[in-house]
Amino acid sequence: MECLQKFRNVPGLVVNTAKSDIFTAGIQNNELDSILARTKFSRGEMPVRYLGIPLSAKQLSIADFSLLVDRIENCICKWRTKFFSFTGRLELIRSVIQGVECFWPSLPTSSDGGNLPSKEEGGLGIRHIQSWNVALLARVLWNIHRKADTMWVQWINDVYLRGISIWDWQPNKGDSPLLQRLVEIHNRVVIAFGSSKAAIQRMAGWSDIQGLETSKAYEYFS
Questions:
Q1: Is the N-terminal amide bond of 11 cis, ω within 30° of 0?
Q2: Mean pLDDT computed over 151-167
């Protein structure tokens, strides 16, 4: 616990024992009991969930997204008892329901489907969920390309890419479905723009210092 105390002294953050679990592998039961007694943490069991979604190396099923669906249904049920104008309902869809989906940039969509007309074209201005999903994944692809300073991107580079550019890397059959989907997207833009170099230049035009602007990618993919 000394290291956790040192961590607390620097940023002022305190580990919440009620919300923290310990996951172990390859240690004896007496060692585990000693760790649990010293830390006051509970022993965690797989699969662990992050933002309500199970972390898994396998492709998630529709059932795994039940929490997301339940949250959206709960919002809709509450709205049924209220009197909203058409404009109010539309704003709730845009700001609440489509805001919830952004917590999970890899929603279980596999096709790009048809497009929804924009406001300028007489539509309602609601994002097409499958095109938005592709735009979010394109942002992830760009983060890997620019080697964004995040633990996940570093892990992808160390474990999977191992010095190979994401534009040259090809996944194995058993690799993460997310990585396979990212490769599908980079193949798509390479074919569309003629080469990896041209695709990188185009995506750079969608980006700023913080990374790829999802709205610009959405304009292209929708």
A1: no
A2: 90
